Q: What sequence folds into this?
């Protein structure tokens, strides 16, 4: 359990004492322990003194003498006083700090410690703070201390001092009270509720009002100011429209003073936003678009306006790849206007509103709602995944175009993530591309091809980039992302997949991973597959050129019945694989591969026969290897 | 008490001047020396050497001061009632951070008349970083009924150098506190410096004209070359050798005084005369670089990628000063 000011841990059923234990101690070797007359030597007597035992306590076993030493269990209180300070110091936080003259790190300074076992203080101190039986009440409601020796005592005492230590109960208090006092429906989003749970020890919901003149501001502005900046819950009416009310969770103070203060700050924020909104209203959306010509996207990558042109072409390309050529014109509009809001006053003032303001102003400029929705979702995958129909396709196209244009522009300049440094967020960009490709409206294309098109767009704008570097680095980032995203997949399967084709085509990569998992479970099949794989690799190592193409293998040249059978079956399997029947097709080959390798000498003396047999091995190997590098699989 | 003073206090209002006076008295009673703001343009009280250099040493250091602060990008030609390119920060430094520092801080809110029984005061997690100063801290924003009224930071590093011991830094926005306290809205319409003198009377012309200078008139070529010159000069100054003139017991850059100092000698000179360096003047030059960068940034004259490079250059200068400054504590 915990609150913003305290962490609480309780362990049930802890014994008072450690059990006694026996520790086997090895003494000197028997030869050195006794002389010829079986009298204990000085070495043995020394060992006995050291261990505090008599010679009669010893036993011989193997070449040594031993003693079973009894170790008395220590009282739990004593052990705890050693363990607790170590455990507290060992707690790790995402971000930790030092304070005063203390050398240790913790989330925030430690100000008091209550540590109790069986009614007694567990004695220890951490950076000068001594453990005791005393805790603190609520910082403002109950500026007092209280004592407790057990959790059963602590919990009611905490409640008496206006501290609800249980986060689940605080969450329920926040939800129930908010609904109860609210004149409409509060937007109780999960994240905001949970943030409020950890801003409070004793939550009380109050409702406040802001001036209705601000209701004309775009909804995104209102919601961002309330929910993001002020941690308030916006309030909606029965029709789902925002009202001029908000719900705020206070942790101290009195309703009227707190409400007045909140209303003051919210009105001030809205007043600020309204200034920019009113200014923006004086300008056409097309003029904002034109103004982005004077904004640099990146030193070598031209203006934000030029970027709009590239995004327009890329968006159109992606929608046709997704089988929606009819949306190509709308896609061009989406791409062109996507970044126009960067020159508006509201976005320059509240950067987190980018996209949302673009959508708002696009709608005012008369663009169709699917275009506006796509623009709104360009920075936010969750929002994108909630879109449907045309908006979803356009949104997906813009999201992909935006990321691939960024990747092409930066990777093509040799700007790539290194170590923990990824200032432009290129790894994140690739991770999100994978997520988009795997979503319920999948993108089945190959991002390497798209990167190529994006580089081509730069080329048409006379921006020269290094395509080879970009392509290679893109593959590396994909590999890195898969490693991070697929940490629960067996590592050898992951490795095998990363060596396979389809790296930049996440949809195929995923099915490839599934097939590899099935293959990996069938050890015998993998073993069989490794025979043609290894022999063709060995032949290539020797400099023999292998054409891994079954159609070029002439059955007669094989001079082997089992070879001919395999060739026929492999060609059939090739067709089946193309139709998506994988495991069954490969499985069917297994006995024939075994027969061929057992009955036939691949490296035949006759060159034509040898070439045909190697060609068959190579072709079969290729069938298996199209899902990844099977030699990486274990077992 | 004048008539207007009586009217204000009858209304329960506080002037800007009085607010600062209350804070001065409060922190003075907590053992802080009340210093004056620094006389070089800075973006925040943190840049004052009383913070930027003095948070690094092992000595106890408890001070408070008002720092006029300049952030060209925040200028709104006075059209935003609560935002301007030059405003004031009230800064408190206590090193090492006392155990009851949060209670001390809450006491200052009560002293200002924000009754902590009636108002909601909360500490909201907020970690602070000033890349150009190589400074980072962990702490909170303090919210009073939802308004951020202070930044509360435990300094972890400055100039990229770890702070040991760690100080607590508290920064108040006195204008906004004053407005909140009085239930008012605007720097330019409501805020009173004294009972009779509006804040507007004091700072309006300065604010308006600097907005025009920053956004319209400042010559960016001139500023770029100033940046280069100041950066170079800061580097030259911080790298200048400083010697001990034994005869007069002062420091000097005259190499006639160059001699090997034993560790004991060095220690006793440092104890009496401080760092054998020009960390302070080099820091002034670095601070000027930082201010010029801020004007250029406000003008949009610096692209996103160049921005990081300029910030690195400023950090390099500030760090060099910090490193020179802490040499006196070694041995």
A:
């Amino acid at each position: 359990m915990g609150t913003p000011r305290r962490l609480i841990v309780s362990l049930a059923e802890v014994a008072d004492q450690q059990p006694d234990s026996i520790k086997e101690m090895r003494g000197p070797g028997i030869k050195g322990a006794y002389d010829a007359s079986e009298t204990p030597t000085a070495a043995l007597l020394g060992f006995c003194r050291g261990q505090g035992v008599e010679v009669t306590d010893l036993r011989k076993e193997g070449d040594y003498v031993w003693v079973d030493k009894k170790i008395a269990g220590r009282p739990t209180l004593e052990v705890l006083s050693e363990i607790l300070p170590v455990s507290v110091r060992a707690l790790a936080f995402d971000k930790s700090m030092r304070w005063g003259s203390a050398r240790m790190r913790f989330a925030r300074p430690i100000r008091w410690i209550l540590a109790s076992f069986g009614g007694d203080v567990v004695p220890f101190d951490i950076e000068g703070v001594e453990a005791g039986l005393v805790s603190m009440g609520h910082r403002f409601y109950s500026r007092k201390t209280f004592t407790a020796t057990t959790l059963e005592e602590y919990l009611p005492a905490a409640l008496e001092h206006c501290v609800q230590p249980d986060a689940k109960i605080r969450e329920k208090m926040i939800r129930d009270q908010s609904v109860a006092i609210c004149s409409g429906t509060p937007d109780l989003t999960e994240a905001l509720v949970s943030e409020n749970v950890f801003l409070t020890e004793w939550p009380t919901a109050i409702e406040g009002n802001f001036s209705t003149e601000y209701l004309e501001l775009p909804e995104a502005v209102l919601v961002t100011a309330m929910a993001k900046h002020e941690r308030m819950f916006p309030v909606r009416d029965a029709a789902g429209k925002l009202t001029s009310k908000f719900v705020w969770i206070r942790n101290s103070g009195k309703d009227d003073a707190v409400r007045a203060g909140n209303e003051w700050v919210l009105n001030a924020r809205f007043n600020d936003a309204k200034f920019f909104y009113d200014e923006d209203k004086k300008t056409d959306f097309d003029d904002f678009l034109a103004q982005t010509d004077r904004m640099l996207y990146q030193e070598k990558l031209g203006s934000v306006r030029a970027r709009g042109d590239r995004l327009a072409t890329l968006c159109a390309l992606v929608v046709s790849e997704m089988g929606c050529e009819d949306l190509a014109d709308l896609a061009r509009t989406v791409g062109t206007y996507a970044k126009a809001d960067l020159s508006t006053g509201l976005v320059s003032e509240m950067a987190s509103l980018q996209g949302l303001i673009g959508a708002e102003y696009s709608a005012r400029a008369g663009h169709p709602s699917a275009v506006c929705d796509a623009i709104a979702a360009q920075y936010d995958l969750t929002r994108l995944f909630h879109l449907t129909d045309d908006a979803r396709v356009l949104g997906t196209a813009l999201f992909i175009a935006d990321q691939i244009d960024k990747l092409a522009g930066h990777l093509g300049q040799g700007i790539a993530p290194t170590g923990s440094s990824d200032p432009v967020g290129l790894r994140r960009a690739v991770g999100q591309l994978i997520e988009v490709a795997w979503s319920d409206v999948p993108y089945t294309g190959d991002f390497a091809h798209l990167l190529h098109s994006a580089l081509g767009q730069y080329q048409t704008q006379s921006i020269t980039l290094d395509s080879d570097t970009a392509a290679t680095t893109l593959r590396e980032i994909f590999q890195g992302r898969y490693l991070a995203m697929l940490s629960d997949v067996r590592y050898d399967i992951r490795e095998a997949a990363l060596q396979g084709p389809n790296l930049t085509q996440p949809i195929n990569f995923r099915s490839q991973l599934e097939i590899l998992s099935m293959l990996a479970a069938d050890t015998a099949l993998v073993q069989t597959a490794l025979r043609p794989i290894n022999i063709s690799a060995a032949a290539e190592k020797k400099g023999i050129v292998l054409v891994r193409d079954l159609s070029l293998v002439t059955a007669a040249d094989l001079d082997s019945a089992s070879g001919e059978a395999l060739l026929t079956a492999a060609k059939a399997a090739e067709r089946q694989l193309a139709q998506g029947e994988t495991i069954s097709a490969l499985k069917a080959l297994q006995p024939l591969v075994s027969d061929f390798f057992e009955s036939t000498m691949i490296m035949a003396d006759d060159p034509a026969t040898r070439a045909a047999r190697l060609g068959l091995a190579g072709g079969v190997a290729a069938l298996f290897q199209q899902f990844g590098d099977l030699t990486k699989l274990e077992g | 008490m004048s008539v207007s003073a009586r009217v204000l206090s009858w209304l329960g209002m506080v002037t800007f001047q009085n607010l600062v006076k209350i804070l001065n008295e409060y922190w003075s009673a907590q053992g802080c020396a009340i210093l004056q703001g620094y006389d070089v343009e800075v973006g925040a009280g943190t840049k004052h050497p009383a913070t930027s250099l003095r948070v690094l040493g092992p000595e106890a250091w408890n001070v408070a001061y008002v720092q006029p602060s300049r952030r060209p990008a925040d200028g709104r030609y006075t059209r935003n009632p609560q935002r301007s390119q030059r405003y004031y920060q009230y800064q408190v430094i206590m090193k090492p951070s006392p155990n009851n520092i949060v209670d001390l801080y809450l006491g200052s809110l009560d002293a200002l008349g924000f009754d902590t029984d009636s108002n909601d005061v909360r500490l909201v997690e907020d970690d602070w970083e000033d890349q150009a100063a190589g400074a980072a801290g962990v702490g909170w924003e303090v919210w009073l009924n939802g308004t951020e009224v202070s930044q509360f930071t435990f300094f972890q590093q400055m100039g990229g150098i770890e702070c040991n011991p760690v100080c607590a830094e508290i920064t108040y926005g006195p204008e906004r506190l004053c407005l909140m306290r009085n239930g008012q809205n605007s720097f330019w319409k409501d805020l009173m410096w004294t009972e009779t003198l509006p804040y507007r009377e004091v700072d309006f012309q300065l604010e308006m004209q600097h907005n025009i200078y920053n956004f319209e008139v400042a010559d960016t070529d001139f500023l770029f070359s100033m940046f280069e010159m100041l950066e170079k000069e800061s580097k030259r100054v911080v790298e200048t050798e400083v010697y001990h003139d034994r005869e007069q017991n002062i420091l000097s850059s005259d190499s006639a005084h160059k001699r090997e100092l034993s560790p004991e000698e060095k220690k006793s000179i440092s104890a009496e005369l401080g760092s054998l360096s020009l960390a302070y003047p080099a820091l002034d030059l670095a601070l000027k670089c930082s201010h010029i960068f801020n004007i250029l940034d406000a003008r949009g004259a610096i692209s996103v990628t160049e921005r990081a490079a300029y910030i690195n250059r400023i950090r390099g200068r500030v760090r060099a000063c910090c490193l020179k400054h802490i040499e006196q504590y070694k041995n």
About this structure: Chain B touches chain A at residues 76, 79-83, 96-99, 106, 115-124, 127, 137-138, 144-147, 154, 156, 163-166, 168, 180, 183, 185, 300, 303-306, 308 (CB under 8 Å). The longest strand of chain B covers residues 147-158. Residues 133 and 315 of chain B are 5 Å apart (CA to CA).
